[in-house]
Amino acid sequence: MTLLLPKKVTIIEVGPRDGLQNEKNFIPTAVKIDFITRLQESGLQEMELTSFVSPKWVPQMSDATDIISSCLNMKTRNIVLIPNRKGMERILLTPCRAVAVFVGVSDEFNKRNINKTTADSMKEVLPAIIALKGKGYFVRACISTAFYCPYKGKIAEADTIKLCQQFINAGADELSVADTIGMASPNESFSLFSKLRERFPHHMITAHFHDTRKMGLANIYAALEAGIIRFDTSAAGLGGCPFAKGATGNVATEDVVYMLSRMGIETGVDLEKIVSAIDVIRPHLSRPIESAFYRLHSSTE
Amino acid sequence: MTLLLPKKVTIIEVGPRDGLQNEKNFIPTAVKIDFITRLQESGLQEMELTSFVSPKWVPQMSDATDIISSCLNMKTRNIVLIPNRKGMERILLTPCRAVAVFVGVSDEFNKRNINKTTADSMKEVLPAIIALKGKGYFVRACISTAFYCPYKGKIAEADTIKLCQQFINAGADELSVADTIGMASPNESFSLFSKLRERFPHHMITAHFHDTRKMGLANIYAALEAGIIRFDTSAAGLGGCPFAKGATGNVATEDVVYMLSRMGIETGVDLEKIVSAIDVIRPHLSRPIESAFYRLHSSTE
Q1: Each residue's pLDDT tens digit, B68-82
Q2: Minimal C-alpha gap between A275 and chain B (Å)
Q3: Example GO biological process term (chains A, B) (predicted)?
């Protein structure tokens, strides 16, 4: 067997949104802006900036408007999560032209997360996608619990693929397919992503892994073999799922970029600049940083 | 591409030797025996028990004779490391019938580790292997710095393969090929292990990875794809390399067994019993336990 791996992959930085939304203490807006700016300067091409979630639910994201007005630039695809109709109304008032929407494959997860079944969520999200595409927005569809649900267990591949098809039919540009609780094994990663790659050959398919059970990088390697060339990662491994005991965060940007560079796969990301971005946010974090690269290379460790 | 993965793999537990030799504080012999006994009861078939290294160099291993007399059993292959001629003389006085020898591919590493070049080490080790094989011993050859050396950098595959060939020529039963400082990437794992598998189709080839850069499980996955069905692991991820800054230990037995079980690959290892073994040794360790499975499943965390 010969491994046919890509020469280049795209990293989508989700730390400022998916990562920070799980941080208990409010991080000053100026610190977030410094963090994001350094990440943008590292060469990252796409990034989830912030979220128009209700400030009552997630106070950490209450400065979304300030983040957008300070951090939008032309070099990076700046994505803002809009979790509902209200978020959609708010995005229309900003210069941001890339949005993320979010639905879980698992009804149980969806109900506990946003108090709606998957089908009811889709009834709201799909018309929003159609409307946003009509206005020229880039639409990223985030599919959570695509492998496992903390309540229901294993999710059937067919259910995940069916939901992805609905997003594609509505015009979504990107599918970000997430192992939300970090339970997928490398052969589950290979299997689902092979099927998605075959089913949607002309769309962006992004793999989103958590390192909860140390399988994050193994799952990325398996997804690469399945033809995936886009990965969500989070600087410092920020994030995590509030519903899973002991869950660590997303796979760390610097660990993924390091592995890829060691495999001869280009990402365009400067690791020293990622470390400098983490140095800025670190004093404000409530949890120790688990990323291996940061531990090995930070001057402050 | 279809993944052809094995149905069953063998785990070689190296925690009691490779793991504990890096622990600063002397762990009472009775605790070690309890730890080892629980590991044996978990279903592990092969294990590095202890080492006949000089007690002056590694005081932790000064109770090797007691460990052997308490822990030898018929169900498990109990391996004792013999680092030199003195160790060989000592093993002959015990009922143990399986030994490990140890040489680094890198001269620089070998010199700093045991004050000899690789060639000089081999001049001592190879006749010892021939003598031990003549007496019916099982001989495991541990090849360190098989991918990278902390002083020299990248090791040429040809150099590692050449050393392996010398061990095989002398009659070694097993090659344990180690990424001593946890630097190998998955495609380096796949490449070297594919070549070793092809070159030595009738010998036991074991992959030994450290999780220093979070690539441990990805490297195991790549080695599985290269046809490797034997893996060195260490309960609780004990161990590490004293020559590498921030180095974490060997890949954790429980994280590897968990991933394999989730891939439908049988190991015969009972994870609950591994957790109970770790519970016994944990109060005596100088470092926090980094294994994901233990953090998620230990009742004492």
Answers
A1: 999 998 788 999 999
A2: 15
A3: ketone body biosynthetic process
